[in-house]
Each structure stands twice: as structure tokens, then as C-alpha cells.
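FIELD: query
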Amino acid sequence: MSVKEAVLAQPSLVALWDFQEEAGQPRVSQGPHRYVLEEMAGGVRRVEDGVLGPYSAEITPGQWLRAARRETPALNIGGPDAKLTVAAWVKRHRKPLMTRDGNPNGPWFKECEFIAGIWNETGEKRQYGMFLNLGIWDSKEQLCGHVSAIGGPTPGYRYCMDASIGQTPLPEDEWLFLAITYDGLYARSYVNGKLDARPERNPYYYPGGLYDGGPDGADFTVGAVDRLHSIGNFFAGRLGGLAVFDRALTEEELLALHSLR
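FIELD: result
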């Protein structure tokens, strides 16, 4: 069985994108729902370097994809009983350093990167999101599973600080199987099927469910988030596949998927 066949056989699957479409074409999910990811900043190039097929999507900083909330209700995983898994096959590239507000005199820093989820900071409509290099709690270059039950910042902080953050810096220019899960009590981050354990941060205790913005909540986005009244946190690299499940897959299940690669 191929990894794609195994994902499609999961009864908890919401949507699977394999990114086999050419630039300029909508990316249509497989599985129980036919959800469309639209290009929002120019054509996303298709390259011959795939995981779920011969191709993957090459996303450069500034590009992103969106699935409109009103057209993708099953991706709105929220409420007190919310459970989910977001899994992605990723080959990250080196992202250029940047400065705040375009100040050429710095300080220069590496902005965090968003892979996929529902995470709108401007409107305080955060739900769940897979990030790299989040930059909180002494993290750098790790996988992060951001979660929010309230949509807004963590009480007492300027930003949301709730996330499962792994221990291991992720390498560039090699395929990785990344997954974040939430089971109603804990958020977890997995790299190549294994829990990237870190004391107090992964697993991350977070009872209470996830924010549900209802029909006025945020869209599902890939490669960027709505941040500080602009689109930001751009991802740099290749996406070979992206899947969302409405259940927290176990480490054994994730290892089994990784073994099929």
C-alpha cells in the first residue's frame, strides 16, 4: 500500500491534497470532501520532486493558498470536544532574513513559517496551525503545533503562547513527514512519525478544546497567516502532501504512514 492509499483509507480523514496540479490550477482535495485551495499571490510552481506523486508544490515567500471557510465546513475543527491531526510532507528551504518594518539597519531575524491551519491573528480568530521556527519559549527551527481555545492572545501575553514545540531543529532541503495533533487534553508535534519530545512543551497540556469562530471565523490557509493586518509568516519550501483528520492519530499510526514513504 502506498502512503497516499493509506491516508485515503483513514476513516477520520477530512481532506488530502497531493499537489499534483500545475501552477494556476486550483488544488482540489481527495477523500470525503472536495475542498479547493486557491492561489492568492501568483502561480505556485509545480516541480518534479514528489511524495504522493511525481510532483510537489514549490512555495516561495510571499505566496500562499487559501480555502474559504464558507466552502470548507469540515475544516472548522473547534469547540470543547475538538480533536485533530494536521500532517504534511515538507521539504523546507532556507528562508531569507528580514527586518521589522523593512528597516535595512536591522536587527535582522528569521521570521517563523506557517505550513497550514486556521490561524488569523489580526481578527483574533486563532484555532490550530502548524508552524516552523515559532520563536517562543526558547524555540528555534523546531516544529510547533499552535492551538487556541479563545482565538486571541494567551492571557497576560501579547500573542498566543500555547503550542507543542519539539526539541529538534529541522533540517533544510530534505523531505520530512511532520504532524501536529490535539486530543482534547494535549497538543503534540511529531517528526517523521515520532514524538519530538521536549519537557513541558511536547506534549503540551492544553485542556478545553479549540476556538470555534463559527461562520465568521478564519479561512484555512497554507503557507501564510493573516498577521498584524497583513499576510505574513510565509513558508519557504516544497509541499508534497497535506492532510487533515478529525482525530488525533497515534504515534504508531504516524510511524506506519512514515514507513510507507
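FIELD: remark
Residues 114 and 131 are 4 Å apart (CA to CA).
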